Amino acid sequence: xxxxxxxxxxxxxxxxxxxxxxxxxxxxxxxxxxxxxxxxxxxxxxxxxxxxxxxxxxxxxxxxxxxxxxxxxxxxxxxxxxxxxxxxxxxxxxxxxxxxxxxxxxxxxxxxxxxxxxxxxxxxxxxxxxxxxxxxxxxxxxxxxxxxxxxxxxxxxxxxxxxxxxxxxxxxxxxxxxxxxxxxxxx
Length: 187
Prior knowledge:
The protein is mostly helical. The protein is built from 7 helices and no strands.
């Protein structure tokens, strides 16, 4: 059974430019440098050279946006993986047999996911600030690859007591990076 995943508007726009490229985009992607001109000159006829030049620059332009879309998709996959882990808790039970209950359960799932992302983001920022304060080189390119969807440190099964501890700055102290992880102690 075929499944359509693009709306009519998305299908119509597929493989096409969305809007007019800006002056900066034109300069970055559509101006030919000497290497580009050498590649274009390898074509024998004028119409072939023109077509090749348009393809060359268009592919570069679209490739940039493909990479951006891939990074967004990777973020969504991280969120979905966390959602599956929270929702299923390694059991996969949906206990409500009526629609309203399911909607409530899924609404709470979104709330829990947001709470985990907020928790992880605050502690990632605190850890990065601490590393910088301790003189460790923290590169922006490395920070860009961090994700707030990590969940290895979260126990998804069991009972929970939610009591607010008395914390002066709102965060628990960070662990010493020189101490072994809990996993390392078990092995």
